[in-house]
Amino acid sequence: MPELYLRLLDRIMTPVLLVFSIVLLLRGHNEPGGGFIAGLVVAAAFELQILSRGEAVVRGSIGAYLQPLIGIGLSIAALSATLGVLYGNFFKGVWWDLHWGAVSLELSTPLFFDIGVFMVVFSIVTSYLLGLSQREE
To answer: Which of 58, 75, 102, 128 lies 20 to 30 angstroms, CA to CA, from 11?
Structure first.
C-alpha cells in the first residue's frame, strides 16, 4: 500500500511535471528542450502515479492507449520529415504563420516532429515502467 507522502507528492508534482513538459515541448524546436525530454518528464509523472496509486490503476487508465500512441507518434514524425520534400529538401524545416484576429500562431515541421517524438518516448518509457512494476503471478 502506498504511503501517505507518496499520494501527497503525486497530487502536487504530477500537474507541475505535466505543465513543465508542455513548456519543454513547445520551446524545444527553438531552444534546448523538445520532444524527447518532454516525453521523459511525462513518463516520470506517470511513474509517480504508478508508485503512489499502483500499477493496475495506471494500466487501467492509460494502458490501452500506449501502443497506438507509438504508431501515431512515428507517423507524425515521419510525415513532418517528408513534408520538407514538398518544399525542396528532405527534412527541410517549414514554418506557417496563422493569424486569427489579434492572435498569431507559428506552426512548423520541427514542432510536429517534436510532438511525434514526444508521443513515442512517453509511450515506450511508460510501457516499460508499467512492465517493470507488474507483479509475477
So the answer is: 128
pTM: 0.87
Q: For the chain, give the longest Cα–Cα distance.
A: 59
Composition of the chain by helix, strand, coil, percent to 5: 75, 10, 20
Q: Among all chains, which residue has been given the C-alpha cell 510525415?
A: 79
Cα 93 from Cα 71, distance rounded (Å): 22
* Stretches in the chain below the pLDDT threshold 70: 1-2, 29-30, 32, 136-137
Going from N- to C-terminal start, the domains of the chain cover 4-133
Radius of gyration for the chain, computed over Cα atoms and rounded to the nearest angstrom: 18
